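TASK: fixed-backbone design
INPUT:
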């Protein structure tokens, strides 16, 4: 065993099966693994169908994601007795539902998407309590393997990749996003103006099975959080594989946020456990204050003029300083489409200021901070979420939310001891 094991009530470190039965728990855990992988990869499967079988629409995407969410909810309902520490998730879900109904009432319209943003967090957070220890890392391992394989295919056989997935056609048919010229790649993959480049891949921004580079870069950061949280328990080949995947993905996507946060997470492996418990509550106000005080531009018009980091932070600062009072209580829902490049404003427009505060508290407090892994994930996840929201709302996509909240949910359900530095022993 590396580090202290989990507390006995979790039933994971004992040698006898608990009341669920070891076979039943293993099967349930595999189902969770399949649901998470489906959430991450279903867009790639739909893109193949769209390109080679029949044209799809946005409703097909909604239906597919809805089926995945329903499968997760069904599994949670059938196994709720195996879950503990449900109060925080239940309160967050209840608050989200009440605010969704309030915003719908005030604006005389109903759009399930806004409730869906927070619902996915709760679903995968609770699914994290139903997955076995050996399947946490293997989920990330297999996602990294298949994603890395298609990353290499895209890098060296771009035409083959583009002809197989036809990302531009998929996003045009299902999201209404027009292609950039006649190129078959998604238009965000072709955007380089004002962007850093590492020079490793002298080509477009790579997307692999995620079909667009932003979610791929975010998944690389979530994988980095896994490594920072459970480093001592990872096998040597997992360390090499996941580290290689993370670095190559950040090089391939030319992600500014990922390139900035990865060294911070690595340093946080040593520093986060030293921080006072719940000090991560300060990150959101600090990030917001810095974006406003250091990047606010009085001449900004509310429209992105350039795709660079400074402009995006200034864009977020403009929204937060120019926001009108009715928006705080959900009376300006119609403005949400203008705030897609400012996640802070997007959440307030769609969830009210109270929903934003609920998100801040849940992200900051959902993971118990009574262990080193808990502190590492709680701090890293808070930084990841509220740094990502500066430039948009991509952290709410199921491709990112599924693996992130699965990891958070596992730590929430399986409390580690005060001195623990790793999850339970390997098989």
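OUTPUT:
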């Amino acid at each position: 065993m590396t580090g202290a094991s989990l507390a006995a009530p979790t039933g994971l470190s004992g040698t006898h099966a608990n009341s669920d039965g070891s076979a039943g728990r293993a099967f349930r855990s595999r189902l969770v693994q399949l649901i998470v992988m489906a959430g991450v990869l279903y867009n790639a499967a739909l893109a193949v169908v769209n390109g080679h079988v029949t044209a799809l629409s946005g409703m097909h995407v909604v239906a597919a994601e809805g089926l995945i969410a329903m499968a997760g909810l069904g599994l949670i309902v059938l196994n709720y007795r195996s879950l503990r520490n449900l109060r925080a998730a239940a309160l967050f879900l209840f608050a989200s539902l009440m605010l969704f109904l309030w915003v719908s009432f005030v604006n005389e319209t109903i759009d399930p998407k806004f409730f869906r943003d927070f619902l996915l967090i709760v679903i995968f957070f609770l699914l994290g309590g139903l997955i076995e220890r050996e399947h946490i890392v293997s989920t990330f391992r297999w996602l990294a393997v298949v994603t890395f394989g298609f990353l290499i295919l895209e890098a060296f056989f771009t035409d083959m990749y583009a002809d197989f997935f036809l990302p531009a056609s998929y996003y045009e048919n299902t999201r209404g996003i027009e292609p950039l010229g006649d190129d078959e790649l998604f238009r965000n993959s072709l955007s380089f103006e004002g962007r850093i480049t590492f020079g490793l891949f002298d080509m477009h921004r790579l997307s692999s099975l995620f079909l667009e580079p932003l979610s791929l870069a975010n998944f690389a950061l979530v994988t980095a959080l896994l490594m920072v949280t459970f480093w001592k328990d990872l096998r040597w080949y997992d360390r090499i594989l996941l580290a290689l995947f993370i670095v190559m993905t950040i090089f391939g996507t030319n992600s500014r946020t990922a390139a900035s946060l990865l060294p911070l997470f690595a340093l946080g492996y040593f520093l986060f456990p030293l921080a006072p418990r719940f000090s991560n509550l300060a990150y959101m106000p600090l990030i917001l204050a810095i974006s406003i005080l250091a990047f606010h531009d009085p001449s900004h018009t509310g429209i992105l003029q350039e795709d660079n980091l400074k402009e995006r932070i200034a864009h977020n600062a403009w929204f937060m300083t120019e926001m009108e009072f009715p928006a705080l209580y959900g009376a300006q829902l119609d403005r949400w489409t203008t705030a897609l490049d400012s996640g802070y404003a997007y959440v307030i427009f769609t969830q009210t200021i109270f929903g934003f505060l609920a998100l801040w508290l849940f992200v900051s407090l959902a993971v118990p901070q009574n262990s080193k892994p808990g502190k590492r994930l709680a701090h890293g996840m808070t930084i990841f979420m509220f740094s990502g929201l500066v430039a948009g709302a991509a952290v709410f996509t199921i491709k990112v939310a599924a693996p992130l909240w699965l990891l958070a949910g596992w730590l929430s359900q399986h409390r580690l001891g005060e001195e623990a530095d790793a999850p339970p022993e390997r098989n």
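COMMENT: The chain is about 65% helix and 0% strand.
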